[in-house]
Specification:
The protein is α/β, with parallel strands linked by helices and 482 residues long. Helix content is 56%, strand content 20%. The chain has 4 domains: 213 residues, Cation efflux protein transmembrane domain (Alpha-lytic protease prodomain-like, Up-down Bundle), CATH 1.20.1510; 79 residues, Cation efflux protein, cytoplasmic domain (Alpha-Beta Plaits); 73 residues, 2-Layer Sandwich (Alpha-Beta Plaits); 85 residues, Alpha-Beta Plaits. The strands form 3 sheets. The protein has a 4-stranded mixed sheet, with helices on one face. A 3-stranded mixed sheet has the order 1-2-3, covered by helices on one side. Strands 4-5-6 form a 3-stranded mixed sheet, covered by helices on one side. It is rod-shaped. 31% of the residues are buried.
Length: 482
């Protein structure tokens, strides 16, 4: 049988290297294109070309910022940045959108001024502006495709912003080519109106930049303000359904998802049945974590559990839940219906060194909380038992006589098939303590098991008052480990 293939994520160094290489390539390309457009724009006097040069200059600054941001964003989490540094990429994208907006303001101002006042409309045209723009389109297409691929592989928001930015440069370059072509035609046909084509093309470039700027700024602001991305909103619905199907989960009080660069963080609060053990609660937490990471691989998951009352809880469950909430140990809880109300009997274990006054105050608190939890309770009787606070080192006694007495007492109960593993000890206090295993029929109901064991204990201790503790462990006949 083939071994399952587990796709391990690439080490951080590989992620950083791939992103840095793509960002560095973008800087080199932006530098070359910007220089060519500036020279050509100055020689021709074309506002469209100068606006493209300004746009490419912004590209160069943005590429440099991106290069720096991808270097910093891959740093691991530290004491000052517990969630890592991935949001530096979002900050880089936000700064880039601000630079793009500034270039738009200048381009729009200059274009409107030329259209209204007919200044600087005469252009010195040649084949070079067209060649530079075509070269720019080829370069922008290449680097946009490269950046988009690396951004998708590394989930880099800064590279994705650059890819989007450079892909729009293609359309703005085409707009400038159209403007220059219309101006050239206007000169050849002596049509003055076509001289406005160049500033109009510059306005078209500005509109394209504004559109990209708005899209980029909105996305980065959402990331910086921890807004849930649209794709995570859809996955959140599926996760809510999956979490509710986990056995023991009574409610999903909150589920918050957010992204920081390539990292996804999930923070949820589950209502878990309060009668479950701590170990079972941990298992449910692990299941919830697995459910989220199954849909969002590599997600950083924090699960907070809240003990919650289940509508199916019995009176016994609710009474024990009160003791558990107060961190108290109770056992042998009995509930009787008496005169229209409930009568509760229970045993409470306290430290053997606790004074009676403190123990009684503890019982009073416990009983008042039980009455608040279950208003139907009319009376409560609590038997206080002391539990050893230190570990005793008892010496084993000769147990032959005591074991014989135990067997004689057990013979009076037909349900008792056997007693074995009898251990008799005497701690430093001098009291006698006994533990033993008792074999009973497999199908004997637990109510009868408890009654037989209790009666056996009472019968034996009536003839042995020096025995302070008798612990009997019941075993089914099929599991008799003699």
């Amino acid at each position: 049988m083939d071994e399952p293939v587990i796709n391990q994520p690439a080490p951080p160094s590989q992620h950083s290297s791939a992103k840095s290489s793509a960002a560095l390539f973008s800087i080199v390309a932006a530098t070359a294109v910007t220089l060519l457009k500036v020279i050509t724009g100055i020689l021709t006097g074309s506002l469209g070309m100068l606006s493209e040069a300004a746009h490419s200059g912004i590209d160069l600054i943005a590429a440099a910022i991106t290069f720096i941001s991808v270097q910093l964003s891959d740093r691991p989490a530290d004491e000052d940045h517990n969630y890592g540094h991935a949001k530096i990429e979002s900050l880089s994208a936000f700064i880039e959108s601000g630079l793009m907006l500034a270039s738009c303001v200048w381009i729009i101002y200059e274009a409107v001024h030329r259209i209204l006042f007919h200044n600087h409309l005469a252009l010195t045209l040649s084949v070079w502006p067209f060649a530079v723009l075509v070269l720019s389109i080829v370069v922008d297409f290449t680097r946009s495709r490269t950046l988009r691929r690396v951004a998708r592989e590394q989930q880099s928001e800064a590279l994705a912003a650059d890819a989007l930015h450079f892909s729009t440069d293609i359309w703005s370059s085409i707009a400038v080519i159209i403007g220059l072509t219309a101006t050239w035609i206007g000169e050849r046909l002596h049509t003055p109106g076509l001289q406005l084509a160049d500033p109009i093309a510059a306005l078209a470039v500005a509109i394209i930049i504004l559109r990209v700027c708005w899209s980029l700024a909105r996305r980065t602001i959402d990331t910086l303000t921890d807004a849930t991305p649209p794709e995570l909103r859809q996955q959140r619905l599926q996760l809510m359904h999956d979490l509710h199907t986990i056995d023991g989960v009574l409610a999903v009080h909150s589920l918050r998802l957010r992204r920081a660069g390539p990292n996804t963080f999930a923070d949820l609060t589950l209502g878990i049945n309060r009668t479950l053990t701590f170990q079972r609660s941990e298992q449910i937490t692990a299941q919830a974590t697995s459910a989220i990471q199954g849909l969002l691989p590599g997600a950083d998951v924090v699960v907070h559990s809240v003990p919650t009352a289940d509508t199916s809880e019995s009176i016994f469950d609710r009474v024990r839940a009160v003791a558990a909430r107060l961190n108290l140990a109770t056992h042998d809880v009995l509930v009787h219906r008496y005169n229209g109300g409930l009568h509760v009997e229970q045993h409470l274990e306290v430290d053997e060194s606790m004074p009676l006054r403190d123990a009684h105050d503890l019982v009073t608190l416990l009983e008042s909380e039980m009455r608040r939890e279950v208003p139907q309770i009319a009376t409560i009787v609590t038997h206080i038992e002391s539990q050893p606070a230190t570990i005793e080192h008892p010496a084993a006694l000769e147990a032959t006589r005591i074991e014989e007495d135990l067997r004689r007492a057990a013979a009076a109960f037909p349900e008792v098939l056997d007693i074995h593993e009898v251990v008799v000890t005497s701690p430093s206090s001098g009291d006698i303590q006994i533990t033993l295993h008792c074999t009973l029929p497999d199908d004997l109901p637990m109510s009868r098991v408890h009654k037989v064991i209790s009666e056996l204990e009472s019968t034996f201790r009536a003839t042995h008052p020096d025995v302070t503790r008798l612990l009997i462990h019941p075993e089914p006949a099929t599991d008799n480990r003699r």
